[in-house]
Amino acid sequence: YFVRVEVQRQWLPPISQEHEVLVQIPGVEPSINEPIKMEVGIEDCLHIEFEYEKRCYHLHDVICGKINFLLVRIKIKHMELAVIRRETSGEGVALSAAMSSAG
Question: I need a surface site. Which of 11, 36, 64, 66 has the fewest CB within 10 A?
Answer without folding.
Answer: 11
